[in-house]
Design brief:
Blueprint (H helix, E strand, L loop, with lengths): L5 H14 L5 E5 L6 E5 L1 H7 L1 H8 L9 E5 L3 H13 L9 H13 L3 H14 L1 H6 L1 H8 L8 H11 L2 H4 L9 H8 L8 H14 L13 H10 L14 H8 L8 H9 L31 H17 L5 H11 L4 H14 L2 H14 L4 H13 L3 H14 L4 H29 L1
Parallel strand pairs: 1-3
Antiparallel strand pairs: 1-2
Pfam family, one: TPR_1
Keywords: TPR repeat
Protein name: Serine-enriched protein
Length: 434
């Protein structure tokens, strides 16, 4: 039977550290004037600590046959570590939680995995609120080190549930890329994807101070520069979770950084056709696509087609400045019923009903049986309180296309309007008669 007298051994080694008898190592901790010297023994340091073992092998003795090592950590933390190295014991009951975290980082540097695991457990079990309140500081350290593996998933879970702590932090732009990528890869981040996009763009600007803040002023090379900076982040954005408004306001100014097929699929999200999106969330990074406009006189047909497509994409994104492209298209082809109808609908969305009515009337003069155009004109008539004309257009639209949900909804609202109006007048009539 083996009897272990570890407690006495630990006490004797602690005395050796305290007295410094026969020391051959001088450890200077901190910087003057707030530094402190510890006397230690190479045989204990080498056998107990990988960090000191490597250091001692690379240091030459001085004239007194001693070696000197400089350590740049707090004296409080090093005192805990050196006592642990000598005695195998540590008391953390009254240690401030901030010092505990510094101890965790220092223990990892010194290669004291047993202590790393123990301190992580204490932080998680007793100091979860502190971790949440200091999450940004913690992330700066732990996600770049695989040895701190217990605290990583705990913090990742907090980030998932309280993502704004990271993305709204004043120092977000200084976050190292590897940590940013780790965070972007987390599933179910509880934050609007448009905010994530904003944060990524700010992070990119912080690394390209020379770029104009307005991307409208960027050259092709500027887009390439930003794209290169964000090459590892762009594939991790969940584009199809971003709202239509944010796609237009926040993403579309940087469209040239995205793959053409991805941008097309983003557009398709806003087209109510029920078609599936073919593009993966992860896409390859390539050079930006710069639209090339034909210059020759025979390019009118191509120009019209390109402008119509651009205008349609803009409209689906509620980008009402599609009117500009449609007007250019109509300057080339004044009798383009589709362009007239689409511009009329754009005016309707902007509340410019008279201008919209002019375009829709012209479109229907050219092509009388366009169901969507009749629906748009019916909607304008309803807004202008011309109920009979509205009902006539909406009925005809639904005869041509019974699945036209827009016309169905407008007609339903029109009928509801008339019912409320009849109830109002019936009530007033009763009041007058009484």
């Amino acid at each position: 039977m083996t009897i272990k007298f570890y407690e006495k051994l630990s006490s004797n080694l602690n005395d050796l550290l305290t007295n410094g008898n026969e020391y051959n190592i001088i450890i200077e901790v901190g910087k003057a004037p707030n530094n402190q010297v510890f006397k230690a023994h190479s045989v204990i340091l080498s056998s107990r600590c990988p960090y000191f073992k490597d250091k001692l092998n690379s240091i030459i003795c001085n004239n007194g046959n001693r070696k000197k090592i400089n350590v740049d950590i707090s004296i409080r933390v090093f005192d805990l570590i050196i006592k642990y190295i000598y005695t195998g014991a540590i008391s953390l009951g009254k240690v401030n939680v901030s010092v505990l975290f510094d101890l965790l980082i220092a223990s990892n540097i010194f290669g004291l995995q047993e202590l790393v695991d123990y301190v992580q457990q204490i932080l998680i079990e007793n100091n979860s609120l502190w971790i949440k309140n200091n999450l940004y500081r913690i992330c700066q350290t732990i996600f770049s080190n695989d040895n701190i593996e217990t605290l990583q998933p705990f913090c990742a879970n907090i980030i998932t549930q309280h993502s704004n702590i990271i993305f709204d932090h004043d120092e977000f732009i200084s976050l190292p890329e590897n940590i940013l990528i780790f965070i972007l890869k987390l599933d179910n981040l509880q934050i609007d994807e448009g905010i994530i996009w904003d944060s990524i763009i700010k992070w990119g600007f912080a690394r390209n101070h020379f770029l104009p803040l307005d991307p409208k002023k960027w050259s092709d090379d500027d887009f390439l520069t930003m794209k290169s900076t964000l090459k590892n982040c762009l594939p991790l954005i969940r584009y199809f979770h971003i709202s239509g408004e944010d796609i237009f306001e926040k993403v579309s100014p940087y469209q040239k950084m995205l793959e053409p097929n991805l941008w097309i699929n983003i557009m398709m999200k806003f087209i109510p056709s029920g078609e599936s999106i073919s593009s993966s969330r992860i896409f390859s990074i390539s050079t930006p696509t710069i639209p090339i406009k034909p210059e020759d006189n025979n390019a009118n047909e191509i120009d019209v087609s390109m402008m119509k497509k651009h205008a349609k994409d803009c409209l689906k994104l509620k980008r009402y400045d599609a009117i500009k492209d449609l007007t250019r298209s109509l300057a080339i082809d004044p009798n383009n019923a589709w362009a007239l109808s689409t511009r009329g609908e754009s005016y309707r969305m902007l509340g410019k009903y008279n201008q919209g009515l002019v375009d829709l009337n012209r479109a229907l003069d050219i092509k009388p049986n366009m169901a969507s155009t009749l629906g748009s004109r019916g909607a304008i008539y309803r807004t202008m309180k011309k109920d009979d004309k509205a009902l006539e257009d909406l009925n005809k639209s639904l005869q041509l296309d019974p699945t036209n949900e827009f016309a169905l909804n407008i007609r339903k609202k029109l009928v509801s309007d008339k019912k409320r109006s009849n109830l109002f007048f019936n009530k007033k009539s009763s009041e007058i008669q009484s």
